[in-house]
Design goal:
The strands form 3 sheets. The protein has an 8-stranded parallel β-sheet with strand order 1-12-9-8-5-4-3-2. A two-stranded antiparallel sheet has the order 6-7. The chain contains 13 helices and 12 strands. It has one domain: TIM Barrel (Alpha-Beta Barrel). Helix 4 packs parallel to helix 6, helix 7 crosses helix 8 and helix 9 crosses helix 10. Helices cover about 45% and strands about 15% of the residues. It has about 300 residues and is of the alpha/beta class.
Length: about 300
Amino acid sequence: MKPTLLETLRARRLVCDGAMGTQLMLAGLEQGSCGEAWNLTRPESVRAIQRRYVEAGADCLITNTFGGSRVMLRRHGHEAELAEINRAGARLAREALGGRPGFVLGDLGPLGALLEPYGDLPVETAQSAFEEQATALVKAGVDAVIIETQTSLEELGLAIDASLAAGAPCVIASLAYDLSMDQTFYKTMMGVSPEQAAEFVAGRGAHIVALNCGTGMDMAGAAMVARIYREHCALPVMVQPNAGLPVLENLQAVYKQLPADMARSVPEVLAAGVNIVGSCCGSTPEHTRAIRRVVDDFNRQI
């Protein structure tokens, strides 16, 4: 039996894959369309993207199920295919590994609406949506459930509870932070600080505390937040920062940080105690390859 994700993290640092959404759009996905449906309609395209990340050195692949909840799929008319989409997402990631050692992380993205009483999404609806998707992913055999791009502790807590109830062997809780105007601290859109997040995630029973995405969240920023996580909880840490800061071109945010420039700050992240290093918006398999080289150098020294 292969070691679990948590067992592996005790021995070495791991590399996760990079952006999926931008890679799908490069493969032909139209803006605003349902990329998760490609698990069924264009599985070869999804598998090919993930295989490129594996060939670049990724130990962990995140399933193409970020918007795979009932709440999100309903907006595209695909809610009846929820279980099938999530099962296919797990299968495609496993196939992309091609028998190599590695871990499949089942992706739960945000529900895209504020919970009551701040918004109009009932708590019961959110809880049910997370439970349904987490159950589908766990039944499909994922090695962990990763809850991504969260900004409120209320929604994050529901997703953690749902993942644990579904029997996830490992639960990763990841928040999206924005850099302050004076560039001195990070908080989520809903005002959650890294200190609060670390204590909450540990107290709720998740196994790994993480960060991904967010305005101004680059590799150096990830190191800053990781140090705070380490000060406030004893959980392993995962980071997936963006490929630098975006610039506006033709009314679209474009990330232009080169792989070598992103990799330059990876030693700082590893020194902060990060266990899994990946990347988010704007990144490519070449960014993963550059991260892999730095992580390999680090692992050889421990």
